[in-house]
């Protein structure tokens, strides 16, 4: 009997402890999270005792309604910027260790998990007064102060800021990407990231504007070549095919890149270019025969 009584007391203490712990962090107990209740208290509750007692039924009823609106509507709306920021940070902020291909592989998962993470974060922040539930205006102002515009970073020669922009999912005009490449012609990392930004939105109408400069970046390094050959094949660039054939004819291409160059010519080249490649392959094949 004494053992059962001890268990009941212990269980009761545990429940009370949980109520105290979780209740103390409940969002409703922070006045910053209940603007309507604060408004009722400020404007509807009389300061003098007698009027305060007389008006009690009115302001208590209004206060209860205000509390419900704060709890289920106003406070969750106030926490939307926090939930949005957390979702972007968790799912959509590129990590330096993750390269372009890795980010693209996880893109479908980021899309699928976005509503789940956003809803869960919003529900948690709406229920509990967690760190970060600060003034909404401050939340909206901070990102603008923290992120340096790409044009400013380029003007100030801020390489770290430029890399951050190029590695993000933010859209950059192709002309601006071209300006970044021109400013850092020997920086392989910036060139590769800027080229990815540049070629992504190109189509048959916009390619001619950048075609000459893109052809000029051929044979720089293997990663750059893969980006360029991809867009040349996608848009069937005849000018690129001619430039690639010149590099193959003059044997300026490494063995590692030669296969990709030849496949590109076979894919987008004219009949004469393709015949040249076939003849060369035949010669090589004949020379290997015993």
Automatic annotation (TrEMBL):
<feature type="transmembrane region" description="Helical">
    <location>
        <begin position="50"/>
        <end position="74"/>
    </location>
</feature>
<keyword id="KW-0472">Membrane</keyword>
<keyword id="KW-1133">Transmembrane helix</keyword>
<protein>
    <submittedName>
        <fullName>Lipoprotein</fullName>
    </submittedName>
</protein>
<keyword id="KW-0449">Lipoprotein</keyword>
<feature type="transmembrane region" description="Helical">
    <location>
        <begin position="105"/>
        <end position="124"/>
    </location>
</feature>
<keyword id="KW-0812">Transmembrane</keyword>
């Amino acid at each position: 009997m004494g053992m059962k009584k001890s268990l009941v007391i212990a269980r009761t203490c545990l429940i009370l402890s949980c109520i105290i712990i979780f209740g103390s962090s409940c969002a409703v107990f922070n006045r910053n999270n209940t603007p309507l209740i604060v408004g009722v208290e400020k404007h509807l509750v009389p300061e003098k005792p007698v009027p305060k007692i007389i008006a009690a039924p009115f302001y208590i009823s209004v206060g209860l309604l205000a509390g419900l609106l704060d709890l289920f509507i106003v406070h969750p709306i106030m926490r939307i910027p926090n939930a949005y920021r957390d979702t972007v940070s968790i799912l959509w902020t590129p990590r330096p260790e993750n390269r372009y291909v890795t980010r693209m592989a996880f893109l479908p998962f980021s899309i699928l998990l976005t509503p789940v993470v956003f809803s869960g974060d919003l529900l948690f922040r709406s229920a509990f007064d967690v760190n970060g539930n600060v003034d909404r205006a401050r939340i909206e102002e901070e990102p603008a102060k923290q992120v340096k515009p790409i044009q400013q970073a380029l003007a100030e020669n801020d390489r770290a800021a430029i890399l951050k922009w190029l590695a993000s999912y933010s859209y950059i005009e192709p002309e601006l990407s071209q300006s970044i490449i021109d400013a850092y012609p020997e920086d392989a990392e910036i060139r590769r990231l800027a080229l990815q930004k540049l070629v992504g939105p190109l189509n048959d109408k916009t390619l001619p504007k950048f075609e000459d400069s893109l052809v000029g970046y051929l044979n720089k390094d293997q990663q750059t070549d893969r980006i360029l050959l991809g867009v040349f094949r996608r848009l069937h660039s005849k000018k690129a095919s001619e430039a690639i054939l010149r590099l193959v004819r003059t044997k300026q291409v490494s063995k590692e890149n030669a296969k990709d160059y030849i496949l590109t010519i076979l894919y987008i080249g004219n009949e004469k270019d393709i015949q040249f490649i076939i003849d060369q392959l035949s010669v090589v094949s004949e020379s290997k025969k015993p």
